[in-house]
Amino acid sequence: MIFVYSPLHARHDGGKELYRGEFVPTFETPARVGHIQAALQAGGFEQAPPREFPESRLHRVHDPDFVEFLRTAFARWHAEGREGCMLPSGFPARGLRRDRKPAGISGSMGYYAFDASTPIMEGTWDAALAAAHSAMTAAAMVSEGKSAVYALCRPPGHHASRSVYGGYCYLNNAALAVQYLIDESYGRIALLDIDYHHGNGSQEIFWERDDVLFVSLHGTPDSEYPYFLGYADERGAGRGAGYTLNLPLPLGTGWDSYASALDVALEAIRGYAPDALVVSLGVDTFERDPISGFKLATRHYPLIGSRLAGLGLPTVLVQEGGYAVAEIGANVAGVLGAFAARPA
Ligand SMILES: [Zn+2]
User: Which of 31, 36, 98, 283 could form a disulfide with 322 if both were Cys (CB 3.0 to 4.6 A apart)?
Assistant: First the structure.
């Protein structure tokens, strides 16, 4: 089985975030990728570089002005004589104007971001673009006939919406893979998000679409990030009414309850009868993840993988979260094992 990898991810490094009242080094680090890459190489997976794609591919999912902001943000910050990492400190909450984008870089950051945990640094754009290209490369390989391809994306993507970044995410890699599959080969795609955190960006992007079924299992937003989306009563709108399914689970959820919810998700996907599957693969559902609250163990990830592979669909798997760095490789390889065992 092929995994798509770019060394450019490492250019996004050294950031800080505001986490529960403290300014700390970001949990989303380059070391995560090294552990996954090592586990996959040890497991006999074949590494491939990402292909290049025109920026118009990004505009299929993201607003052009948002892409332009991400591409130029650090240079604008640097031009003001600043170094280090960029974090916003003011947001257009209720009662403030959202129709006017401030001209200055500080106001622009608040306009395009939804939290203060997602730093932009000198190499962030290069890394985010390489991750987006990795996801689209995996989608291209699947539309050309591969059974399953994994994109080792970093930074992750599922919190990024059409024109807002946050949650360590800048470009929505999984959504770009979904759109690529639709543009090139397939009519209907199921996007299954099994990261611990709700994929608010993916939900927003496909909210009014009936050619994408978005299904997410995640920690309840009543207590867990991203707090303001991911509730069970969100089902889509317009043509997309009924094509969003959220399965929020309580803090402390262990394997039995998780597996039951996963079965509900898979049943919904079977009912939709998609042509292909995209998986937002977060392993921050792991019991020792530092910023999450489920209780899955390393032995459970192969069980998840066999259930997903059992759908029998062409599949693109896209890396999202997972912050227990020492175990992240084993957990990701655990999910991918069942796909690697299928005929290529
Ligand atoms: Zn997550």
Answer: 283
pLDDT tens-digit series, residues 59-97: 999 999 999 999 999 999 999 999 889 999 999 999 999
pLDDT in tens, 216-233: 999 999 999 999 999 999
Which DSSP category does 115 fall into?
Answer: -
Instruction: Provide the β-strand partners of residue 274.
Output: none
The predicted structure's pLDDT at residue 100: 95
- Three-state secondary structure call for residue 216: strand
When pLDDT is averaged across residues 166-176 and rounded to a whole number, the result is: 98
Cα radius of gyration rounded to whole Å, the chain? 19
Q: Is 159 a catalytic site residue?
A: yes
279 C-alpha to center of ligand 1: Å?
13
30 φ/ψ sector (left φ>0, alpha ψ -120 to 50, else beta): alpha
Give the active site residue among 9, 158, 159, 300: 159
Burial grade of 130 (CB within 10 A; 0-12, 13-18, 19 or more) = buried
3-state secondary structure at position 208: coil
pTM of the model: 0.98
